[in-house]
Amino acid sequence: MAGYLIRRTLLVIPTLFIVTLIVFFTIRLIPGDIITLTVSELGGGIGNIDRERLEAMLGLDVPAHVQYVRWIGNILTRGDLGNSLRWKTPITEEILRRIPVTFEVGLLALILSQLVAVPIGVYSALRQDTVADYVGRIVAIFGIAVPGFWLATMVMVYPSIWWNWSPPVLYVPFSEDPLENLKTVLVPAIVLGMSMSGVTMRMSRTMMLDVLRQDYVRTAWSKGLRERLVVFRHALKNALIPVITYIGLMIPILIGGQVVIEKIFALPGMGMLAVDALSYRDYTIVSGVNLFFAGFVLLVNLGVDLTYAWLDPRISYQIGRNAGSE
């Protein structure tokens, strides 16, 4: 187990390196740059001499690969992600200021989606081909079919037309007013969790049906054990292993969806920061935010793999044996 953990942790390093390479150079392929966009906003023009001076001030006067070496060198030696090209603020401080918003919405969406999806999926499996099962499957298909950005737009537009109500868009930090903060993030979290809950419902139902057909579960039924005991002690843990895997795989999709949700609901999180930085071609912010997201996703996937050992001790034994043989 220890060998597996070490290998997986070391694998994070080259993966992050590849991610930084792709993001750093891909964004520079987008037409336009921050100097041109800034000047066009001011309604003026600049000469070649002024442009060269601005490029030197922003560190854009050298080839892209030299900029990358400088950027990655500052991260490795000083832990410094640099400063924003547009706002001149330290990127690390900007990320730390916006992390709580993104983390709160994402965690709330994940919790709400799974609290709804897993029980419905399990209950649908236990009541297969009944009215409750059909209702649960309809809800799951709705969650899968409806795009999050469309649902968010509908939530913002139609309630204000029909009932003169719209979700609050002025973010209030949790430390200032917990109730107002919950009002601000609850609707975005529900919208964000809809697509996740749909797939989880289907997967929970499918895996639970498969486990319920296993011999050891049939043996538990034949002993006269109560349904609750059979489900929670014998069937649920094994049924949840693929569901846990899916939740780990959904983290990148959750982050990508949150970028759109934060923009629609005007939440000052990292998704909003990334969209604004991309609009202004602020290369340093886009690279820093993507580096943070990539590291977070890799750590979550590592945690999901280690969770298998708690759900099924046989997986823990196989991991330790393979690690020792290699």
Can you walk through the features of this model?
- This protein is mostly helical and 326 residues long.
- The protein is 79% helix and 0% strand.
- It contains 13 helices and no strands.
- It has helices at 2-26, 34-42, 48-58, 64-78, 91-126, 131-145, 148-162, 178-212, 215-222, 227-264, 270-279, 283-311, 313-325.
- Helix 1 (2-26) packs antiparallel against helix 12 (283-311) and helix 6 (131-145) packs across helix 8.
- It is globular, with a radius of gyration of 24 Å.
- The two termini are 12 Å apart.
- Mean pLDDT is 80; it is low at 317-326.
The description of the largest β-sheet is: none
- Strand proportion, as a percent range, falls in under 5%
The count of β-strands is 0
Helix-strand string: HHHHHHHHHHHHH
Oligomer: single chain
Keywords:
single chain, 326 residues, mainly alpha, globular
Explain briefly what this protein structure is:
The chain has 13 helices and no strands. With 326 residues, it is mainly α.
Topology:
Layout lengths: L1 H25 L7 H9 L5 H11 L5 H15 L12 H36 L4 H15 L2 H15 L15 H35 L2 H8 L4 H38 L5 H10 L3 H29 L1 H13 L1
Helix pairs in contact: 1-12, 5-6, 5-8, 5-10, 6-8, 7-10, 8-10, 9-10, 10-11, 10-12, 11-12, 12-13
